[in-house]
Amino acid sequence: MNAEVLRTYCLQKKAVTESFPFDKTTLVFKVANKMFALTGLDELEFKVNLKCNPERSLDLREAYACIKPGYHMNKQLWNTVAPQGCISPELFFELVDHSYDLIVESLPKKVKIEFKFISA
User: What is the pTM of this model?
Assistant: First the structure.
């Protein structure tokens, strides 16, 4: 698992864009201009910050040592995931999907309608 695998997976989703909002060492993935995943590109260990609902977030942190509260994010709503050998690729991609879905579900109704039109 590495940043290029994450990038390919995120960009295959509907209406996803990527950017370097902080500096050239952090890659951010957005849908409707709302962030759902970000990763550092200069770290020794590959880690991804992913949005998560609070209850699930706590369950995941208890179940997996490689999932911790999101660094410099809302710690109840974001997890930092270091997938190297700790979780299966399937679970990792399911966590990415969950983060993406939470953002899409939270979009205002007007944006959701436009989003569905764009993604149809």
Answer: 0.86
